[in-house]
Amino acid sequence: MKKSNFIDLISSIDDWLWEVDEKGTYTYSSPQIFDILGYLPEEVIGKTPFDLMAPEEIERIKCEFSKFAEEQKPFAFLQNVNLHKNGSRVTLETSGRPYYNDDGVFSGYRGIDRNISERILEKNILRLVDKKLPGALIQYILHPDQTSELTYMSSTASGVWGYSAEDVERDPGILVNHVHPDDQQRVHASIQESANNLEDWDCKYRMYNKHGKMMWLRGIGTPQRLKNGSTQWHSIITEITDKVLAAENRINGFKQTIKALSNAVMARDPYTAAHEDKVAKVARLIGVKMGMEDSTLEGLELAAIIHDLGKISIPSEILSKPGKLSKEEFDLVKTHATRGSDLIRNINFDWPIAKIMEQHHERLDGSGYPYGLKGDNILLEARIIGVADTLEAMSSHRPYRPGLGIEIAAEEIRQNAGIKYDKEVATACLALVENGEIQKILDAAD
Fold this sequence. Notes:
Layout (H helix, E strand, L loop, with lengths): L2 H9 L4 E6 L4 E4 L2 H6 L3 H4 L13 H12 L5 E9 L5 E12 L5 E10 L1 H14 L5 E7 L5 E6 L4 H4 L3 H6 L3 H4 L3 H17 L3 E8 L5 E12 L5 E9 L1 H28 L1 H20 L4 H12 L10 H4 L7 H8 L1 H9 L8 H7 L20 H16 L10 H10 L7 H12 L2 H9 L1
Antiparallel strand pairs: 1-2, 1-5, 3-4, 4-5, 6-7, 6-10, 8-9, 9-10
């Protein structure tokens, strides 16, 4: 490497490079020593590292270093406190390797010192607050090469997942390796997305604790980009197993209610029930494509399963009429949106199921029913079901006409995206039509 290139390389880093001879005196110092300890390079030539060290550190470091120097071995990450020229204390992390002259004779050490004062201060602050937090406090770093490290873990962590800081120190991958296999990819993806966008990390996932028990955890953290391009999070990890199980029980109760209502539709009108089942599957697929959270997807699917519940109050001879409906008959059919929502309005769901059902025939331009709502006045879930409903209805057989096929249905959505149908919803739906996923659902449901 040319000398100028070497000088450029040295000037591009923040760490202090040095060289000591076989007696331990400095023979070279890079300019970074000024930023770290306040000395000019020439001021330390001829001094030893112990001349710059805090007095109480000298004996400990001499003892540590002697283990390596006696056999002329490399050493790494010796933490020590030095005194700045102005008298303040600076914590350094030191590593070095022996070097030899042309005759193979030991000539000294070359090494690097990294200022870790801020990191030490940060850890001390973390230790002060971690006992007051409701879960585990961790400091996690993801490097540009996709390697990662856990640089801090609070004493409260063992109460969350059973593993102590010592356990993790012995096996750094222990926390990642014990994430439930079905959740590992999702956890990694959420961390990567947070790093890419510098947006808060918020992820619910399953993990096996030290005793093999599966539990639900929630991690929340704020990312920060470091100078070297790495991303660092300070995150709180809390156990939410009881909350998740309670929510699952509640959702199962809702599903049982929905199933009973769906069975009522099935008993009276098997065609409508089959249609609702297909629409629910398509709507959920669209919601997943749009990146909806699991809890929102649950509500979307439940509303879609009974979106036509109100048709149980419409005479079956009208619903199954083979010809075109009269205006009066069609007006009666249109009442199913409000009739269905009225039937469940007093059920205390976790989602606005009644409103979603009521609005699933509303359209962005106000051409829908029952209220002629426009734009964002229509719930997103209702906009999704509206697209899924249109796609399924046009694709499938109807008493008054044969199925038009998915291509014609997709063209209707494409032409009216941003007009009648939400553009983002339409885009997600058309992508799923293009890759064949919706066709699989429609075929499987037939």
